[in-house]
Automatic annotation (TrEMBL):
UniProt-listed InterPro entries: Retrotrans_Pao
Annotated source species: Araneus ventricosus (Orbweaver spider)
UniProt-recorded name of the protein: Reverse transcriptase/retrotransposon-derived protein RNase H-like domain-containing protein
Amino acid sequence: MEDRKASFLSVKAEFSEKKANFCEKTRNFERKKTKKRIFAKKRKNLIPEVTVKLKDNFSKREVLSNIAIPFDPLGLIGPVITSAKIFLQRLWLQKLNWNDTVPPNDLNDWLKFLKDLPAVNKLEILRCAIITNPVAIDLHSFCDASDKAYGAVLYLCSKNESGDVQTNILCSKSRVCPIKATTTPRLELSAALLLARLASKVNSIITMHFHNQKLPIVSSCHLLK
């Protein structure tokens, strides 16, 4: 009986040690993983670091994989990612399977996009979105639509006692237009709805008081019946 008890305690101690080692390795992995993300505490620039690998051929699956590379939850490089999504929609219209190779004409456009993509590393959007010691903070917004995509963006405009003004992008959202043709007023209305939802989300998260909130009026929405 004593031997069984000693054996059980030995196994329990070994299991506890392995569990502790596993937890520590997991924490170390998460720390290393987090350092690569744009919200790492020691990094002031919010633009994600982008690296790409070029090759002669790409499948539709690999195109989608490359689109998912930039970690950009705030939509700071939304126009760039939207261009890639529009390209992916072109592949869908050609009814390519996931493992089909991108056609030569489309491949040239995709390779050009990948070559230009690292240029986003030169952008700089600081973590601190407002001026030091602000006396007034306004939330400005904008939305628009085209026949390819529509989007919305929010800006913070802050002013200090000296009258200095600082404006920084806060976040954005974009959508690729549906394949089924629709009118420009309806797309602009979709952009306005996207903006309203984005502004509502920001107001529910950010606790600061905005002196003014300016939402644009989509000019052609009145054409809808």
